[in-house]
Amino acid sequence: MTQSAEPNSGQTSGASYAAAGVDIEAGDRAVSLMRTWVEKTRRPEVVGGVGGFAGLFDASALRGYRRPLLATSTDGVGTKVAIAQALDKHDTIGFDLVGMLVDDLVVCGAEPLFLTDYIACGKVVPERIAAIVRGIAEACVHAGCALVGGETAEHPGLLSPGEYDVAGATTGVVEADELLGPDRVRPGDVVVAMASSGLHSNGYSLVRHVLAASGRDLTDHVDDLGRTLGEELLEPTRVYAKDCLALNREVDVHAMSHITGGGLAANVARVLPAGVEVEIDRSTWTPPRICTLVGEWGHVEQSELERTLNMGVGMVALVNADDADAAVGVLANRGIHAWIAGKVLAGEGSAHLTGSYGRSCP
Q: What domains are there in the chain, each with its CATH number?
């Protein structure tokens, strides 16, 4: 309860939520600004609109499935948000969040259905929150899923006024007998690599450490990149969901791997059964220049780079060898640069890289 001082008593007014740093009116304005963008993500199965306590999705749509399996994923963006905050550019970080969520679902063959987000900030600046949600909504449209709800929490004293973090969760569905994964992988399969749009949303703690230690600034123009460091590091994560679902419809895909934290080899190994191994040939592609620059500037060993960064590969599909060329063609027609990067052999359930890159890493 808030106590009020008597007039002219010399006492100050009692405590309030606003005095504690939480601006309810700003939160309401943020919701108003983001409403249009959320509506753009609407699917026919969504029930109700923005502002309810829970997002509703009509599950009767699943009656057409023989045996639907629900898939779920939760994630955040990590320290890439520090780059967005430093540059005061917030309308692309949503692609990073959605990419981390829906592309974890799609590796099992699941179609993303809906997503919820969570934004924690030190101070609600309505225009900034709306910009973040705009990016999330645009990425949801790109992925074909609905943004059915979310939460914006103001945490004064825990986060500074300019700080925020974003996280979310998504749900999808796949037929049980169409589930992709280790059970389908066989020796003789081929590795189809899909190019990343850049660093995506992993390895930014290492990158920021290297930049700080080497005295480089986000506003520095780097000739090898053709733009500033900040512009390079804020390049949005590529969202592969629709492309991977299309690939799965058109060729015999056995498994997929989303290349995030841990790097290429470790993430591919997650979808392998016992008794096989994957050999990935580095000579089949050239890593993005930002990867090799981080290595050069920070004297980072190649093995450490490969454990931390995606090295230019954002997604991998393991396909029947007879379908490998067709898979590359399907992805090319959808604007995704892809190539045959390796093969599946009899082995011990591991993945490893061989050979040298088109441009040598440090």
A: 22-51+66-175 (3.30.1330.10), 182-354 (3.90.650.10)
Print pLDDT tens along the chain (362 aa): 232 333 444 455 566 556 566 556 666 666 666 667 567 777 777 787 666 677 888 899 899 999 999 999 999 999 999 999 999 999 999 999 999 999 999 999 999 999 999 999 999 998 999 999 999 999 999 999 999 988 899 999 999 999 999 999 999 999 999 999 999 999 999 999 999 999 999 999 999 999 999 999 999 999 999 999 999 999 999 999 999 999 999 999 999 999 999 999 999 999 999 999 999 999 999 999 999 999 999 999 999 999 999 999 999 999 999 999 999 999 999 999 999 999 999 998 899 999 999 854 44
Alpha helices in 170-214 (DSSP H): 204-214
The H-assigned helical ranges of the chain are 24-39, 80-87, 93-105, 126-143, 204-214, 229-233, 241-250, 263-269, 289-298, 302-308, 324-333
The model's pTM is 0.89
Kind and range of the H or E run holding 201? none
Q: How many CB atoms lie under 10 A from the CB of residue 287?
A: 23
Tokens read off for 266: 């470790």
